[in-house]
Design brief:
Helix content: 10-25%
Shape: globular
Number of helices: 11
Oligomer: single chain
Radius of gyration: 21 Å
Amino acid sequence: MTPIELQEELTSLYTQHADTIAKSSSETINNRRVKAMEDFVRLGIPSKKTEEYRYTNLMPYLKGEYTYELAPARFSVDLNDLFRCDIPTLDTNIVLALNGFFYEKNQIDRLPEGVIISSLAKASLEYPELVNQHYSRYADTSLDSLAALNTLFAQDGIFIYVPKNVVLDKPIQIINVGFSLQNLRITRRNLFVAEAGSQASILICDHTLCKSSFITNSLTEVYVGENARLDIVRMQNENDKSSLINNSFIYQAANSHLSSNTISLHGGLIRNNVFTKLDGKGANNETYGLFFCKEDQHVASFTHIHHAKPNCTSDQLFKGVLDDNATGAFNGKILVDKYASKTLAYQRNHNILLSKQAKMNTKPQLEIYNDDVKCSHGATVGQINEEALFYLRSRGIARKEAHHLLMYAFADEVISKISLEPLRERMNDMVEKRLRGELSHCENCAIQHN
């Protein structure tokens, strides 16, 4: 199958089911589909000729026979029994999403006045003005064809709204579950809105609970209002047959702060795209990522941080560990507008190859149109430091254990950026087990197969 044939297959799939998809969605969501179709037809499936996807060949992962669910799956079992979080010291509001749809049996604790945690489809009907104000306002479908494809098929996902000056003490934990006995395409759409002066933390866990192959096209829009603070941690731990395309579009107002940290532990193909616009004076953005891949897996990160106003700061740090025949890619850009004076922007990408066959492509970029800025970027690709390894072995530490210690120290720089201490400790534990080859399922979740 060629990219053009896959594009035709997907457009045909939408055309066949357009009426059914439209009936399950509000006018707000449906109104965005026309432009999305135009952009998808114009852009097509990204190929290696597309600059942003130059080092990521999607076709081996996206082709094949897959079913598509047009409505929430009905299960007689309770997913809260099937899948429950088990970090005793991390108290969260847990929200389950099954195959891209808000799980109808979610039980959310009492929330502060005005806070909304809901199905996106339901919210677009109950709060049409609020959803219409933000939905598809930050996700520019002309930039990425898979973002356009998501907007075309989007029906449901998670909607989170934190009103002005409200502080959420309890983090929100979103658990995205892929569960099907057949190979399945999943479209997942989220919208997070943090109004001026608000504060919240969101933990997102991506999982597959069976051995089927899943292709997930996920898109999250984030609005961070003036003086608001939002911390987002995403943990990706899917089976090795799965492909995850994850687009995040982030808009930040004046003096806002957003910290994003993505930890990729398992998956056949993982592609994380982050588009951020700092559109208010004094906005601060921290974007971090850490991934591990082996065998024939591929993990790619793409970032586009747009400094549109003066006195904004951004910091990017991405690290990767690759083994066997694994491949990885980092393509990051810092764009500084001509009006964005006093910009401080930093970008770093560091990678370690554990085999001669593993390959990493990295392309950090600066595009600056103002002279009064401080910006830097850098990238490294190398192997284990033999001098450091020799030092540890000279202290009586076995080679294998010394190897693990160095890898753990390499990863810790990203893990340490997680502000929630119980979550940071658990992530440290999971990363250590991943490095030792002991992690197959999410170690902080009790999974029971009935």
